Records
---
Amino acid sequence: MSLAIQTNNLVFAYGERVVLNRVSLSVERGEMIGIVGPNGSGKTTLLKILSAILTGKGEVKLSGRDIRTYKRRELSRLFAVVPQEPQVNFPYTVAEIVLMGRASHHNPLAFEGEMDLEAARKSMELTETWSLADRYLHELSGGEKQRVMIARALAQEPEILLLDEPSAFLDLKHQVQLFDLVRRLNRERRLTIVATLHDLNLAALFFPRIIVLSQGEIYRDGPSKDVLTEETIREVYEVKVRVQWDEAEKTQQIFLSSPSSS
Amino acid sequence: MKVLNRRKMIQVNGVLFLLLILSVIGCSLLGPVPLDLSRAFENLFAPEPNAEILFRTRLPRVLLGIAIGGGMAACGVVLQALLRNPLACPQMLGVSGGASLGGILGLIFFPNWILPIGGGLLGEISWVPLAAFLGALLSMVLVYRFSLFHGRLHPYHLLLAGVIFNSFIAAIIMFLNSIVDFYQAQSLLFWLMGSLSTRAYLTVAFIWIYVLLGFLWLWAKGLSLNLITLGEETAMQLGVEIGSVQRQIFVASSLMIGAMVSVSGMIGFVGLMIPHVMRLIVGSDHRLLLPASFLAGGIFLGWADTLARLLLAPAEVPVGIITAFFGGPFFLFLLYREGRKKVAL
């Protein structure tokens, strides 16, 4: 098995404040990993380092090669990032946004070629955004926008897909649809998936491997049934929960209890 | 799926280019004095009144106006993208303030100095625009230094540095204006209001070289500009070497603005309005938006200046008044009609 992502003793600090401390993790090609942890645990920073937005101390390798030796154009063919919420201040159509995923595939002085249009069309069909192609992005609902962001990421034809709390602004139905699509991409296309998540139940339901970050360090790393336990959640999130096995979904689900009761 | 392709590029820019050529002809023919064209063309290089007016007064002025209108509009487009702010315009970069101060110091300290080019054969250049250009270059370096962190130009820092630098310069200009005598104050005010009057083809050529090279430089960054409007991080993730592109855009547009302001003063509104109008008409893809705005800005300023010459002939209205007075309502009309579906704010 070859490694898609490998970090070794990764440290990152904003001035004096250490955000990530000695993070070492390996992600194999074709894995699907959920990163969970409370606010400020370093999830988003880790994702930004993996996508070369921030540079930390320590080693980060993508496909066995040091991340600093990549050009941005190479990186954007290797991995794609789905942002939490798209920030678009200018009136672009959905097709234009998705085609921007092809920017590192074609000559920057030329227009998109047949191959680029084909890749954009396929990724829009896969995410059911093809019918929205000529609409303006800012007219769409939150769920539709999120699907367009995934379509753009797929148009990049990446090997690794990074998602930063992709379901933060979605309702239940769209959350489930989103992760179902991500899982299909992982299974059918062997796409390596790394996502940060707030919702532990969604994490348990869809992600075979879970990494728990706490105060910038990896607290637990393993299959969801071993990681998402009552003790771990109590220690990391400082809340009392009950964890029960759901036979129907073959996964455990987490129940909150209110602090005043019990 | 409607996407930008070569055919649409050629259609839109072809039509605009044709309009631009027609505008050059139309604006040159219109003026307070009626012309006898056959006499003008017969005496192309001779000292004859018709030829003098057409070829040595109106044509250079129209050509200058087109270069400046196009350059301002193109700079407006890229600055709105770079700063990700629809209110950004060429006047905001601080460069224009530096150019104004340089020009005013030139006007106060050596108002009558003339630099003959090629022993006076190629025309003469006043020291005022040279001083202004020097001021533009200095302020460009200053604003750049204050906005650069870790090799990246921060949009908000750039915006704030530019705006505050301009206010600081404005204070100095007001102060100078209050201590010089009445006649000097009058000439300062006129210079600040901006004008396209020129008789020197050398000045016109100087501006065209700056504007055209700068425009081509920016146009080559069209695809990166599209990505930058999505935010810096997204642009990086989609393959843009953000620091380098930001610096190139800043330097190219600053040089253009510096050159333009030093010759014609602050002609406002073109750089703010034309990008929005063209975005409503041709869309937001900078590979098309940039050349289309350049051509449209040239056409618009060409006609605005013609109107400025005609309106109170033989007196002249400052062209900045015309651009704002007629451009403003037109822009609001477009915003009302198209804006509801196309403006994302």
---
Amino acid sequence: MTARVTVLYFASLRDVTDMASETFDTAAPDLRVLYIELRARHGFALPVERLRVAVDGAFARWDDAPRDGSEIAFIPPVSGG
Amino acid sequence: MDAPTLAGRFRLSETPFDVASLRAELLDGRVGGYASFEGWVRDHNDGRTVIGLRYEAYETMALAEGERILEDARTRFAIQDARCVHRTGELAIGELAVWVGVTAAHRDAAFAACRFVIDEVKARVPIWKHERYAEGGADWLHPG
């Protein structure tokens, strides 16, 4: 089973990827594994433990499966205010 | 000074915004107390001299999460209304970065809710600060 997803990159993650988003097919069983795969591919410094994950604009759980057509964002520690 | 363009209670503004008009939006005969918080761009952080910064937001989620925080504040505290505007883009030292305004019949709830809103915004709204330093270099702030 694969799902076509769009992953959004922000802040230090975007600096590394040099792109705002990418769309691809993934066979990752959950969002944690998806991040681990992307971290290996792009060389992100931040480990999964320091991030949160959002799906379609709301915080989600790391053990959620990637849903076909969804927009996924890995959220580095925020620093607004 | 532009008025923020989005009509929600939580807004993002790419340009400097006017606090007086935001305060005026909260005027209400039922209100006896108004508490506000302003966060300004500071010229130092963690021992380094800051010369400017940039805020980047995951805009659609930031707006949704910000609205959820203001809704939480109305549920938890006896307040009349709560609003927040956060800047994005390039900011200079001393510029207004974030504004929170809360109205209530009585001051205790206004103060408490104002504190709650700024703390929650800093904890969970997807906005990131990128600082530039006098000594050279720049960094994303990813606290924790």
---
Amino acid sequence: MSSTRYTEAHEFARIDGDVATVGITDYAQEQLGDVVFVDLPEVGKEIKRGDEIAVVESVKAAAEVYSPVSGEVIEVNSDLEDEPAKVNQDAMNAGWFVKIKLADSTENQSDMDDDAYKAFIAAL
Amino acid sequence: MTSSSSSGTGDAASLSRTALYDLHLEAGARMVPFAGYEMPVSFPMGIVEEHKHTRTAAGLFDVSHMGQAYLTSSGDVSAALEKLVPGNIAALKPGRMRYTQLLNPRGGIIDDLMVTRLPDRKGRQVLLLVVNAACKENDFALIRDTLGNEVDLDVLDDRALLALQGPQAVNALERLAPAVSDLAFMAARTVRIDGQPLLVSRCGYTGEDGFEISIPQKRAATFARRLLAENEVEPIGLGARDTLRLEAGLCLYGHDIDETTTPIEANLAWSIGKRRREEGGFPGADIVLGQLRDGPERLLVGIRPEGRAPAREGTEICDRNGDAAGVVTSGGFGPTLGGPIAMGYVTRRYAQTGTDLALMIRGKPNPGTVTALPFVPHRYYKP
């Protein structure tokens, strides 16, 4: 069973065993507007929690995305190269950015769960 | 995730509102500060769809933040204005308009503006000036200070300005005012809608056919609602206004042009006619005419980055050997083209269409090519 946690900067990490799927939330894509390009890392890159892992370019601006987890990038979403709009259409699923093999699957336990994140964005 | 977006400056407490503010909120606009006003950057359709809608149907823009003023004189008002701009104002006949710039003594651009000659009033020529919002106070002060008693400047504080742009703009507007059907490009006329006069000009900032409509603020919201009720018309924000003008290769003051750029460097030499080139008589004329004669040291060009990453304002431009070549002054994504586009200044030897460049995006060189402007062909009304 996978668990999803969220950062205050609107990144999510969905952990399944020792692999995390990382991306930005639906709230984030709505704030950004139409996504035109996502700059993803190389497969094999070592990442620490808090490192910059991607840059999302919308029509108006660029936004840095930081990884909520540490580990090795094992897959990046190549669909986003031709269809960056997937981030707007389905940020939490088809619009995922990277998959990371985790060193420590409990690392992001202090991040918000579904309910906490819902409350967080409601207050923004 | 952190976002670095560029919108205007100003704290919420001191921002002005246009006559369409309530209408924007009703339509679900996302408002941002811009040039001291609260303006809609986008509506629920979103920038990309708003942009595409304008190129296929009709988009309605609120540009009431811009400055409008009448310039008249008991003497020759065109000769007076020509002391400040390099455009041929004397040749304007009533109902015609043209694009020009206010220049400083170095030939740099203080602001760009549209000048319309309206019908004479009581034997006096009347010019309508439309200037940029961020520059309007400075522009009007400059005109008063330089021309003094020679002219009367009547700032139209009670006017709104709307732009209706797109291939179907004429279809929508002529239902309300049949007289606009045959209005020529860069011409203006007063039309009546429900018995009330409006000044309609056939011009715009998108590269498409379209109109700008000057209307008293107290009638602006009602008129906007009437236009929005037409099938073709959707409200469009400043975000799409920027992507549209960039695809059309049009300069944005404060970005592509400013007090350090001359019209020649900015690829605007076309706006300076033969007589003014021969006679001068505008600020910085020696520098401007020298550049016309010898060529400027740098030129504003269009650039197409390869791939999908946009090259934004401030991006360093190098040649393929890594030597400095220039800087990007406007850059982003072109929804009609489906890819990134930019404008920037390059040293003259790199300015030829087809020149290979390297754009330093996030510290890495990204290939790009000098591309002829406009990126998307203009479709002005020229039957």
